[in-house]
Amino acid sequence: MPETLITTAAPAAPPRASSIRPPRPASRSRVVGENLTLLYEGGRNRALYRVVDGCVVLSQLLNDGRRQITDVLGPGRLFGFTIDGRNIATAETLSIARIEPLGDADLNATNPAVASELKTTLHRMQIHATLLGRKTASEKVASALVELSRLFNRTGRNGAARLSFHLHLTRADLADWLGLTVETVSRCLNRFKREGLIDFSHPKTMRVLDPERLEATAGFTRQQTGETTRP
Amino acid sequence: MPETLITTAAPAAPPRASSIRPPRPASRSRVVGENLTLLYEGGRNRALYRVVDGCVVLSQLLNDGRRQITDVLGPGRLFGFTIDGRNIATAETLSIARIEPLGDADLNATNPAVASELKTTLHRMQIHATLLGRKTASEKVASALVELSRLFNRTGRNGAARLSFHLHLTRADLADWLGLTVETVSRCLNRFKREGLIDFSHPKTMRVLDPERLEATAGFTRQQTGETTRP
DNA sequence: CGTCTACTTGACACGCATCAAAATTGGTGG
DNA sequence: CCACCAATTTTGATGCGTGTCAAGTAGACG
């Protein structure tokens, strides 16, 4: 039984520069966001980890500090893949998360479970690339809500989804995940709230009021719906 | 020795709808682009392939026809990964390409070479996600040129790079890869030409005149440059 | 209660999409 | 080789979505 790590919030760090626009003057010394624990960065560790509870994000940075979150991991997901001993991405935990290292026997990429995880992550990345390159701001935010509600929704004691979930990401994290700015994310969320798609009193506690309309707003890839047209 | 497939251009198909904007009226019956051979689409085949020569692209589609090319494969790359028997992405060859199927013995994802390819692809996807979400149009186009010149440049007989390469992608493909429109791609390319970064007389034959300035225009991830700042 | 940070909201600007049309390239048949 | 048509690429004019800048509000924590 592997030991379980419990990571907690790190002390505040200077703000980072994001946004989509050209090189900003900013070039901060600390690259991770506030309230985060940096698990490793660009090739420091050699173990694979499993998320037990909470939320871990993978990210990349440009030289001037612009950040892209490439994946959001919920319970069960593995991370820490390396190429030639260097980690593929930077990983951070959001608020409190429990992670456990995989045993040495499982560290090999030829392990079927690990290979399967690689393919899953790759598939998710493809879908996310489509979101980043081809979706509008509204579609992006709606997609994120659908995705996060699936990852983190708590089922009631009767087993039915409550459609209320804890948003582990800040608005800035969402922006860095979706290729937007904090302001645009905030505007979309509040518009959805006005339109009755979602509700939130606390900014981190989301409730989906109209899942169908939300999913329609999110847009779909053809594969996801199974539709494939041929002449 | 596995047989080698030679794929050629397919007959013309109706145009597809791309662009980043909301649902377009368009919803065409044929989903692949012109002059392309569709290798498989959303879960039709079970073999892994290796690109021997030419260029293969992986793509995804949204319901209304918007397309995102998620990766561009040059010689040596593998593709055709599946999850539960369904292909992760749609693959198409551009113009003429030679591909060969991997032997049955190699089909297992636990094969080290296959696992390594998965990680390589995943790493490339992360870098591309950063491009899609956080780079400007100029940075995107410059990055694409740098990347394609590495994939397809022909070394002279003395072994020195000639920095001239065949652009397998059309402007529309580039746009779908970079999350832009055809017009923006064309404008960037011609601006780079005016500024002396690149040159091309034929639209498909690119020559890099100033690799350093081009790479500077492309921007870098911190990992790529090896730079990592800590407090 | 004061301070700090995250979040929200408004006014404005600009990069890139959109729309339109001309120029170039590619292919086919005479 | 040239004429002709379709597709691609280029170029210009214009508009919109989203980024930028700025100010205000709300929670969290001492």
TrEMBL record, chains A, B:
The name on file for this protein is Helix-turn-helix domain-containing protein
- CDD domains named in the record: CAP_ED, HTH_CRP
Superkingdom field: Bacteria
HTH crp-type domain sequence ranges: 135-212
Tell me the segments the record calls region Disordered.
1-28
Task: List compositional bias (Low complexity) regions by residue number.
Answer: 9-28
Q: Which UniProt keywords apply?
A: DNA-binding, Plasmid, Transcription, Transcription regulation
The UniProt entry, under InterPro entries, shows:
cNMP-bd_dom (IPR000595), cNMP-bd_dom_sf (IPR018490), HTH_CRP (IPR012318), RmlC-like_jellyroll (IPR014710), WH-like_DNA-bd_sf (IPR036388), WH_DNA-bd_sf (IPR036390)
Q: Which SUPFAM superfamilies match?
A: cAMP-binding domain-like, Winged helix' DNA-binding domain
One Pfam family linked to the record:
HTH_Crp_2
Say which species the protein is native to: Ensifer adhaerens (Sinorhizobium morelense)
Keyword Transcription regulation assigned to the entry: answer is: yes
Q: Which residues form the Cyclic nucleotide-binding domain?
A: 37-80
